[in-house]
Amino acid sequence: MTIDRGQPAVPLGRAGSMPLVGLGTWQMTGPRCRQAVRYALEVGYRHVDTATMYRNEGEVGRALRDSGVPRGEVFVTTKLPPGGAGRERRILDDSLRALGTDYVDLWLVHWPPRGRALVSTWEQFLATREAGLARAVGVSNYGLGQLDELIAATGQAPQVNQVPWAPALHDPARLAEHRRRGVVLEGYSPFKNTDLGHPVLAEIAAAHGVTPAQVVVRWHVDHQVVVIPKSATPARIAANFDVFGFSLTEEELARVDGLSAGRRR
Length: 265
Ligand SMILES: NC(=O)c1ccc[n+]([C@@H]2O[C@H](COP(=O)([O-])OP(=O)(O)OC[C@H]3O[C@@H](n4cnc5c(N)ncnc54)[C@H](OP(=O)(O)O)[C@@H]3O)[C@@H](O)[C@H]2O)c1
Fold this sequence. Notes:
Blueprint: E1 2-4, E2 7-11, E3 17-19, E4 23-24, H1 30-43, E5 47-49, H2 57-67, E6 75-80, H3 88-99, E7 104-109, H4 119-130, E8 134-140, H5 144-154, E9 160-164, H6 172-180, E10 184-188, H7 199-208, H8 212-222, E11 226-227, H9 234-241, H10 250-257
Parallel strand pairs: 4-5, 5-6, 6-7, 7-8, 8-9, 9-10, 10-11
Antiparallel strand pairs: 1-2, 2-3
Bound molecules: NADP nicotinamide-adenine-dinucleotide phosphate (NAP).
């Protein structure tokens, strides 16, 4: 783990590093989105996740500008929508215009186009990185076989794979396979995939004087898995980021890992 922008981060090749905790923005649009991003930046977030498909890049960009936080201090991710294959560069130009920036820190293929790895899209992504429009490039919702297809065809692994992740989805073998390929695993929907009332989370939360949601975020940090909880509620936005004053013991980590028992084959 490295420290970047004053917070725990994972190294990301030439792109520098990626803060481990970011703000998710799916299902937030308009002023609600703008206010949430502004508030997140105020309480210390330096990583925001958006996507062309979320129709909120304009609001995210405005919040970034209004915040007064220098562009270089915030890690911004956006994503190529499904169906964008063949129009990659035009879509990225639109994203950059909406975000009001001349580069994104990370550009992801949101889903395998038409369910396939699609090397031609990946080649376009590598070209945009070369052109400096995206500091890092990666994918989302790709299986290991699809990652391997891209690596075999271009010799370049996606720097990140953004996939659903949560204690109940914990899969150490899959995490290790990503690391073996040099791919950072970024988790999404940490809460939607979690029973926040689970007694194990409640017990560990009580031991640290935090909430079960904070235990879930901290569990990601302790595994060095990037996590991007979404909230439109100021108190939750702040709490989800307030996870750097405690850490889980080995035993607690193992108990949270155990919430996946029975979910996997
Ligand atoms: N690549 C992909 O295909 C993909 C797919 C899904 C998501 N994502 C990304 O991942 C981000 C996170 O995933 P997500 O939005 O699906 O779900 P999530 O972050 O797991 O959950 C969001 C929900 O949890 C609630 N919440 C937030 N903080 C809470 C807390 N401390 N206690 C209790 N409830 C809390 C939010 O409510 P309030 O907002 O009302 O507070 C909202 O209803 C997305 O926003 C998006 O950026 C990517």
